[in-house]
Write a structure and sequence with these properties.
The complex is a heterodimer of chains A (311) and B (298).
Chain A (H helix, E strand, L loop, with lengths): L1 H17 L1 H24 L5 E2 L5 H4 L1 E2 L3 H8 L1 H34 L3 H12 L6 H11 L6 H10 L12 H27 L3 H9 L4 H25 L7 H7 L5 H4 L2 H10 L5 H30 L5
Chain B lengths: L1 H5 L4 H32 L3 H5 L13 H8 L1 H33 L6 H13 L4 H10 L17 H14 L2 H9 L4 H12 L1 H17 L2 H6 L8 H10 L5 H4 L7 H40 L2
Helix pairs in contact in B: 2-15, 4-15, 5-8, 5-11, 5-13, 8-11, 8-15, 11-15, 13-15
Classes of the chains: A mainly alpha (311), B mainly alpha (298).
Chain lengths: 311, 298
């Protein structure tokens, strides 16, 4: 037993030595990873402290769970949480079904010209920046000089209302602009799955007199369901993550009741008036921890249900 | 195959095809219209825009908007900076990603699994906004060029795509043969792995380059020197916050100041998106491939 151990370590040492050049390559990335990903995790301790610029991360006084308790008692707690969930669940549902629908429809279509054109057109917006997307929306939904304003004026004869300022319109604007931007790109994976589906099955079904719609129902949809389930589950693990940039850019003082999500609230607590780094970090940390729990449990479910998981 | 397709289609199928053509055409129009209206407006005259005459194509074709854009010093600064961040940043990204992905693609490397887990974990958990901000401050990166280049040097997602590609496309036997010939790991990486990874390098170059061009958040958080701002910050100020400064629109021949401010915005959108759209046709087939490589794992 002892001998075996010794041999094991000897050969382990040998294997490590043999990989020396690979470790050399990895040295820089490892330093990078530690500094830029793991060091900030230690910075999370300020969520349990009263951060002062003088004391810094390590020198500030501990306050225990005070910041978390403050957040749970904050009157904005439920509002930001509900706003976050509203926007993300809405995106999750729409963002899952629209690409599937698009892929199925494109797959069914025999007209190659339209197929190619629509495919190309739906990919384009994916690479437009969020700033430009919001800029386009600001311009086009302008009630006075935007195309939306022009259309409403032409049809009703009245000046249009400012959609961007209506709180209830915010989730719809957020989600559907996201669909416009990403549905095409997100459908690629389903289109590829459909292209790889069993052609014999289609032929057999055709011979038996199945209509195209029946083949969609009994062949195409079952083909993409595994992919859809995995993506849905993985995305479900991110429901507490609403991108900061887009919400922040689309936000204004009029729609704030619906558009203040956790990430924008975190930003304002830190850099707005009455800047409080510790409180802000606590809110952010609450969000990340919930996310972590969600994605881990969802990953477990995914492993059980579909045999595929992130790790 | 062509013959098989022509085999009599039932009435139901024909109706479906017609429905689909209609639906797809509508979707095509929805996709295209916002893009078209931006381009058309950018080439229209200020007075036509302000009086709402532009519906589809440019009205009173004019380049006023573009002239105003290129008179704007901010836009030029932003353009220059964004190009710099994109080129240098992407080079750093590629270097870092490749030297991470290759060693981690080697199953015989001791500790490969653990290192991989450490990288993957950073995808699902992180310090968040404030600890990151404090880190940049402590490292002295705030308000420097480096803050736009270093913090995102490795995208773990792209690294995994690259690793998966190397693992599944470069046969192990080749490494064994090279080792017998006395090839070291670094030599093998440079002479064999890199040349054979062209496809995946193209994909991640695209992702990184567009990511840099579109990046807004880090500049917004960490920069406050106008000379360092990327284009996206100026875009935000002009398009979203509507800060159109007098020097952009003052021109002796301009009658409608308000109108030119509007056209300027549309022209600016076009100018900002052009670099991405130039790359687009060349890479369209690659990114489909990229999605597929990425889909192999997860």
């Amino acid at each position: 037993m002892k001998k075996l151990n010794k041999n094991y370590y000897k050969s382990l040492g040998k294997r490590i030595y043999r990989g020396r050049q690979l470790y050399l390559l990895l040295a820089l990335p490892l330093i990078y990873m530690v500094v830029f990903s793991y060091v900030p995790m230690f910075g999370l301790q300020i969520a349990f402290k009263h951060y002062t610029f003088k004391g810094g991360i390590w020198g500030s006084d501990w306050v225990g769970l005070k910041n978390f308790i403050k957040f749970f008692g904050d009157r904005n707690f439920s509002t930001t949480l509900i706003n976050t969930l509203r926007v993300s669940l809405y995106s999750l549902v729409v963002g899952t079904f629209v690409p599937i629908f698009l892929a199925l429809a494109l797959n069914c279509l025999n007209h190659n010209g339209i197929k190619k054109t629509v495919q190309t057109l739906t990919y384009i917006p994916h690479f437009i920046s969020v700033v430009v997307l919001i800029g386009m929306m600001t311009q086009m939904f302008n009630p006075i000089v935007g195309i939306y304003g022009n259309i409403v004026q032409a049809i009703t004869g009245h000046r249009a209302v400012d959609i961007l300022g209506i709180p209830k319109a915010f989730p719809h604007l957020y989600v559907w602009s996201g669909v416009w931007q990403n549905a095409g790109f997100n459908s690629i994976i389903y289109i590829a799955a459909l292209a790889g589906s069993d052609q014999d099955l289609h032929e057999a079904a055709q011979i038996d007199g199945a209509t195209r719609l029946q083949r969609v129902r009994y062949i195409d949809i079952p083909t993409i369901i595994p992919t859809a389930i995995i993506l849905l589950i993985l995305n479900a693990g991110k429901v507490m993550t609403v991108g900061f940039e887009k919400v922040f850019l689309l936000q204004n003082s009029l729609n704030i009741n619906y558009s203040e999500v956790i990430s924008t609230y975190v930003y304002k607590q830190a850099f707005g008036s009455g800047s409080n780094f510790s409180y802000s970090t606590a809110i952010g940390m609450f969000n990340s921890v919930v996310n972590l729990i969600l994605i881990t449990s969802v990953n477990k479910i995914s492993k059980k249900v579909s045999d595929s998981s992130l790790w | 195959m062509a013959k098989a397709k022509k085999v009599k289609r039932s009435g139901a199928d024909q109706r479906l095809e017609i429905c689909l053509i209609i639906i797809m055409s509508i979707i095509g129009v929805i996709m295209l219209y916002p893009l078209l209206i931006v381009v058309s407006t950018s080439f229209s005259s200020a007075s036509a825009v302000i009086s709402g005459k532009v519906w589809l194509f440019p009205v009173d074709f004019s380049l006023e908007g573009y002239k105003a854009v290129f008179r704007t010093n901010d836009v030029l600064i932003g353009y220059r900076n964004s190009l710099f961040y994109m080129v240098v940043g992407t080079v750093i990204n590629l270097f870092m990603t490749l030297i991470t992905a290759y060693p981690l693609s080697r199953d015989d490397l001791v500790g490969q699994g653990i290192i991989m887990k450490l990288f993957t974990f950073t995808m699902i958990f992180g310090g968040g906004m404030i600890p990151n901000y404090l880190l940049m401050k402590d490292l002295g990166l705030l308000n420097t060029v480096w803050v736009m280049l270093i913090p995102g040097a490795i995208s773990v997602y792209n690294m995994i795509i690259t690793r998966t590609f190397i693992k599944s496309n470069i046969p192990k036997e080749m490494l064994e043969a090279a080792q017998i010939d006395g090839c070291s790991d670094i030599q093998y990486f440079i002479k064999m792995v890199l040349p054979l990874s062209g496809a995946v390098i193209a994909v991640i170059t695209l992702y990184y380059a567009i990511g840099h061009w579109n990046a807004y958040f880090s500049a917004f958080m960490y920069l406050n020197d106008k000379e360092l701002y990327p284009l996206q910050i100026f875009l935000k100020n002009i398009l979203v916050s509507n800060q159109v400064e007098a020097d952009m629109i003052v021109d002796e021949q301009v009658q409608s100041v308000e109108g030119i401010a509007e056209v300027l915005k549309y022209s600016l959108i076009v100018v900002a998106v052009v670099p991405v759209m130039i790359i687009y046709p060349f890479v369209q087939k690659h990114f489909v491939k990229g999605v597929m490589i990425g889909a192999v794992k997860g």
